[in-house]
């Protein structure tokens, strides 16, 4: 007797529906079908969600409802794949904020660099490692 995977059980269940199915309903069906105890269900829900997300037969909406891709029109099933958000106004505001922060950080960095330049021992010994006491590791 071969046992079906959790995602295969969900797939068979989802074939019955033409509308979106809440994740909770899919998971409840899988738990009942495979006879998981409460502890097993808690331990496996994350694995199921990950596998469901990676399975190309399923499509998820933003409200965590699922449907089979075969039940959708191509344009609907791939809308998130081809969506390019052109929000240039918002990007410009964010860039202005970053530029102000960068100017403040540059001033701090310059003052710390000046302090580092005064300490010649850091630079002169940086690459010298002439310790003969080091043992070879085999």
Describe the structure.
With 138 residues, the protein is mainly alpha-helical. The chain has two domains: 6-82; 88-116. It is 59% helix and 7% strand. It contains seven helices and three strands. It has helices spanning 6-14, 23-34, 38-54, 74-77, 79-82, 88-118, 120-124, and strands at residues 21-22, 58-60, 65-68. It has a three-stranded antiparallel sheet. Strand 2 (58-60) and strand 3 (65-68) form a beta hairpin. Helix 1 crosses helix 2 (23-34). The protein starts with 5 loop residues before the first helix and ends in a 14-residue tail after the last helix. The model has no long low-confidence stretch (mean pLDDT 75).
Helix-strand pattern = HEHHEEHHHH
Q: Total domains, how many?
A: 2
Strands of the widest sheet, in order across it, are 1-3-2
Strand content: 5-15%
Based on CA inertia axes, which overall geometry fits? elongated
Mean of all residue-level pLDDT scores: 75
| Total beta-strand segments | 3
Q: What's the total helix number?
A: 7
CA gyration radius, whole angstroms: 29 Å
Helix content: 55-70%
Q: What gap, in angstroms, lies between the N and C termini?
A: 51 Å
Q: Give the structural class.
A: mainly alpha
Biggest sheet, open or closed, and with what strands and sense?
A: 3 strands, antiparallel
Low-confidence stretches: none
Give short descriptive properties of this protein.
3 strands, 7 helices, single chain, three-stranded antiparallel beta sheet, mainly alpha, 2 domains, elongated, 138 residues
Task: Draw up the topology in text.
Layout: H1 6-14, E1 21-22, H2 23-34, H3 38-54, E2 58-60, E3 65-68, H4 74-77, H5 79-82, H6 88-118, H7 120-124
Antiparallel strand pairs: 1-3, 2-3
Helix pairs in contact: 1-2
């Amino acid at each position: 007797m071969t046992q079906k995977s959790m995602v295969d059980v969900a797939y068979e269940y989802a074939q019955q529906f033409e509308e979106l199915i809440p994740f909770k309903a899919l998971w409840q069906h899988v738990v009942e079908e495979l006879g998981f105890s409460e502890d097993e269900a808690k331990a496996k829900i994350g694995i199921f969600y990950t596998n469901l997300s990676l399975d190309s037969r399923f499509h998820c909406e933003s409200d965590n409802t699922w449907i089979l891709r075969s039940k959708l029109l191509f344009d609907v099933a791939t809308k998130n794949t081809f969506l390019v958000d052109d929000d240039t106004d918002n990007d410009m505001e964010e860039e202005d904020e970053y530029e102000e922060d960068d100017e403040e950080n540059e001033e701090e960095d310059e003052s710390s660099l000046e302090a580092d330049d005064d300490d010649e021992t850091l630079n002169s010994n940086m690459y010298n490692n002439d310790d003969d006491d080091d043992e070879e590791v085999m």
